[in-house]
Amino acid sequence: MNDSADRVVPAQPGAVDDDNEDARPLPDLPPLPADPRWRVEHLPFLTAFSVALMICAASVGFFAGGAPSAVGAAAGVAIVTVSFTMSTLVLAWADTVRPALLMPLGMLTYVVKYTLLGVILAFVVSSEWPGRFAMGWGIVAGVLGWTAVQIWWVARTSLSK
Questions:
Q1: Torsion, Cα of 48, 158, 156, 160 (10° steps)
Q2: Which positions, given as ranges, span the membrane (predicted)?
Q3: Residue 130, exposed/middle/buried by CB under 10 A (0-12, 13-18, 19+)?
Q4: Phi/psi zone of residue 118: left (φ > 0), alpha (ψ -120 to 50 degrees), beta?
Q5: 42-96 pLDDT, tens digit each
Q6: Considering only CA atoms, which of 25, 7, 143 is closest in space to residue 83?
Q7: For the whole prediction, is pTM greater than 0.85?
Q8: How far, in Å, CA of 100 to CA of 109, rounded?
Q9: How do residues 111-140 score in pLDDT, each as one tens digit?
Q10: CA end-to-end span of the chain
Q11: What are the φ/ψ torsions at residue 16 (nearest 5 degrees)?
Q12: Cβ distance 117 to 83 under 8 Å?
């Protein structure tokens, strides 16, 4: 008599074996620094860069289209600076409180900030304000500049360690 209850069924590829899941070794990860300020230590430098970029953008805007363009270009850089700083602070806070919050809070932050950016841009583009084109260029300059300086910062700190 052949009893099918006594047979051992081989595990299917990709199947999770709940009994042995806790026995798996954890990967060797480098320890995080004891001081949580490393998550935001780049912000003062990036803020200084953003202020300098804002002054440059306002100057270019002023010479290209007068005072409204100067305000628009500076406002575009300021929008990017506030947006990127907000993301950094939210993610740094989530990482110190509970790393599992990084993904949901990061996604919520991006949804909120891009919704606000869309509303701001929709309002500005639909207006007849003469600084709207300069604001768009200020946003482009802010994104490119902030991203480039952040890449430089990470590369510099990675090479020094």
A1: 120
A2: 43-64, 70-94, 101-125, 137-155
A3: middle
A4: alpha
A5: 899 999 999 999 999 999 999 999 999 999 999 999 999 999 999 999 998 888 8
A6: 143
A7: no
A8: 15
A9: 999 999 999 989 998 999 999 999 999 999
A10: 68
A11: -95, 130
A12: yes
The token duo for 52 is 């300098």
Q: Which tokens go with 98?
A: 């509970």
Tokens at 137, concatenated: 């260029």
Q: In the numeric block, which tokens belong to residue 88?
A: 């950094």
Token pair 């790393």 in the structure block, residue: 99
Amino acid 100: pLDDT: 86
Only one residue has tokens 């047979």, namely 7
The residue written with tokens 């090479």 in the block is 159
- Residue type for position 124: V
